[in-house]
Amino acid sequence: METYALLTNPDLADMRHIVLTALIAGLSVVLMCGVLSPLVVVKRLGFVGQGVSHSAFGGIGIAAVLGAAGWIIPGGAAEFAVIVAFCIAAALGMASVSDRRITPVDTAIGMFLVGSMALGAVLVQASGSQTSWESILFGSILVAGEREAIAGWALAAAITFAVWWWRRPMLFWAFDEDSAAAFGVPARRMKLTLMILLALAVVTAMKLAGVILATALLVLPGAIALRLSDRLWAVVALSVGAGVAGLLGGFVASIELNWQAGPSMVLVLTLLFACAAAWTWAKSRRAAA
Amino acid sequence: MSPTPLPPHSPALRPSGESSPPIATLGEAAVDCRNVSFSYPGREASVLDNITLRVNPGERLGILGPNGGGKSTLLKLCLGLLRGNTGTIRVLGMSPDEARRAGVIGYVPQRLEAELGMPMSARELVTLGAAWRCPPWRGIDPKRRDRVEHMLELVGAKDFADRPAGKLSGGQLQRVMIARALAADARILVLDEPMVGIDAAGQRVFADLLATIHREIGVTTIVVSHDLRAIVAGSDRVACLARRLHAHAAPQGLTPQVLAELFSHEIAGAPGTLTGMHVHAHSADECCSEPHVHPSAAASANLPGSSSPVQLGVSAKREGQA
User: Fold this and answer.
1) A187 vs B: CB within 8 A
2) 3-class secondary structure per residue, chain A
């Protein structure tokens, strides 16, 4: 077993350090995504997550231009901040367009998605950057170092704290936006807060699973948990648990089968969802019988 | 057009065992609309035209009108969810925005607007109403928990309080939403289309529930509906709204003539668009062989002062047909 050897063989200490650091960084991502995921599923924000993650292309393009001009260091914290800022702006833009009902929500998200991708492609080419599109698309968790792990945990703590802090008005708003506003709940502030938290989680998740698969980390854990329970805090715990299981399973599959970690993780989560769906189906059949 | 004069009061519309409470007329109004008009941006036609309406504290007002008659618009203006009206609206002496922030209105929405996939029990939903303003670092104090339990009991939701919202029937969910509004300590309870999706037996139970709430708490209640049954079930006064206020008085004033005038707005739409349609309202014991073709306008109710149910319906006739 490659995994067992990696964990126990003294000759593989360097490799073990890399993998464990990546795993610690990954745990921060599945924690933040697991906390937000039930809300994303219930509020049907999966496509918004997709739009935000693809908007990162625009941020990557701007960062590449700024890097070529010598204003920021490629791969540094400033580059990450530029991408995060671009994604937050895109998320707020989508929320604003959908609020004003200027354009149908899915059309607005689609416009932001393709516009950002096109902008990113043009700017990266113009800057002459050697950006690896494969790592952007599918993630490169194994390159996550201690700095990324610390940043990931800081963000995970911030997101978890924000959700805990606003849990009551956020849940009130999430259940019924119109009536929440009538009760005095700051509905618009809740929506914008959730969009910013989503943008932060998506950009961090991109590091693990890439642009294409980042949304999976926001959708699948919540979808699995909602299949297994209808109790609020149990759903949140199960969502985080499903994310952790997906992360560990994806890492093992990646090591054993030499697959990429991001896609492996998403495949494990998809398998878990299929199992949860089958369990629900069997349970309902038993109840009907 | 001035509001239609109304006949004397009769208790025939009251839910079983209920006596009619006196209508307060002095002091600060719960809701006071004066000369309110409203048009949506970019549209010439006004949705509300010079509405003047006062709801007294403790009163139960039904706002009856056809779809598109401006009921929801008026409701949203009073809730502070819509702006841009002319005239003035005061809610317990405050502007709608101030009233909304103060949480004096408990709003019970139509069922379909809620995210029923939320993994929350009925009790948790009601608790949110009571405690969403609590500081996040504090738990919910026993007084609020007691209030939640009391409201669950008052609306008869104790038996299913631990059931997830998505597994409640329409009637059960509506009770929970009412309990949530009352647990929030709202001074005005607003129910939007409360009879939608509830069967005939449930409607009677609902009418009794409204009466119980009014008797126990005395909260000001506003019921907005296009359904005659929802309105007559528990209102001290009825405002008939179809862009203008057609009548505003006790429910016994809902004569067939008023109803026909009110719902002709929905059927006729813009003048000349549906020539050949005609609205009729009559007692059930009157002879009528015309087919009722418009479900939203078709309704029946035991109106006060009427010995038999009044039927409201619409007939389609060809031009020139007798």
Assistant:
1) no
2) CHHHHHHHCHHHHHHHHHHHHHHHHHHHHHHHHHHHHHHHHHCCCHHHHHHHHHHHHHHHHHHHHHHHCCCCCCCCHHHHHHHHHHHHHHHHHHHHHHHHCCCCHHHHHHHHHHHHHHHHHHHHHHHCCCCCHHHHHHCCHHHCCHHHHHHHHHHHHHHHHHHHHCHHHHHHHHHCHHHHHHCCCCHHHHHHHHHHHHHHHHHHHHHHHHHHHHHHHHHHHHHHHHHHCCCHHHHHHHHHHHHHHHHHHHHHHHHHHCCCHHHHHHHHHHHHHHHHHHHHHHHHHHHHC
Task: Indicate yes or no: CB of A168 within 8 angstroms of CB of B132.
Answer: yes
**R_g over Cα of chain B:** 20
Q: Which of A174, A182, A226 sits opposite B79 (nearest CB)?
A: A182
Q: Kindly calculate the radius of gyration of chain A based on its CA atoms and give it in whole angstroms.
A: 20
State the pTM of this model.
0.80
Of A165, A174, A235, the CB nearest to B136: A165
> How far, in Å, CA of A111 to CA of A118, rounded?
11
pLDDT tens, position by position, B136-170: 998 888 999 999 999 999 999 999 999 998 888 87
Which residues are A84's β-sheet partners? none
Distances B277 to B63, B269, B274, B297, B321 between C-alpha atoms, Å = 25, 11, 6, 12, 11
Q: Which residue is closest to B113 within chain A, CA to CA?
A: A176
How many Å lie between the alpha carbon of A40 and the closest alpha carbon of chain B? 11
Instruction: Say what the ipTM of the complex is.
Output: 0.84
Q: Answer whether A231 sits within 8 Å of B119, measured CB to CB.
A: yes
User: How is residue B20 written in tokens?
Assistant: 């009619």
Give residue-wise pLDDT tens across range A68-101: 888 887 777 788 888 889 999 988 888 887 776 6
Element spanning B55, H or E: strand B48-55
Render pLDDT for B186-233 as a digit per residue (tens, 0 to 9): 899 998 888 777 777 777 888 888 889 988 888 999 988 887 777 776
Whether B102 and A166 lie within 8 Å, measured CB to CB: no
pLDDT bracket for residue B20 (50, 70, 90): very low
Contact list in B for residue A182 (CB cut-off 8 A) is 79-81, 100, 105, 107, 109, 190
Count how many pairs of residues, chain A against chain B, have C-beta atoms within 8 Å: 91
All residues of chain A having their beta carbon less than 8 Å from the beta carbon of residue B174 are none
Q: Which residues of A touch B118 (CB under 8 A)?
A: 42, 171, 174-175, 232
Percent residues over pLDDT 70 in chain A: 98
- Cβ distance B107 to A179 less than 8 Å, yes or no, reads yes
A273 shares contact with chain B (CB less than 8 Å): no
DSSP-derived letter for residue B251 is: G
Q: Which amino acid makes up residue B144?
A: R
| Chain A, window 127-166: residues with a beta carbon less than 8 angstroms from a chain B beta carbon | 164-166
Give the helix, strand, coil percentages of chain B, each rounded to 5: 35, 25, 45
User: Is A229 near chain B, with CB under 8 Å?
Assistant: yes
Nearest to A212 by CA among A51, A24, A12, A27: A51
Q: A42 and A174 in contact (C-beta within 8 Å)? A: yes
Structure tokens at B244: 């203008």
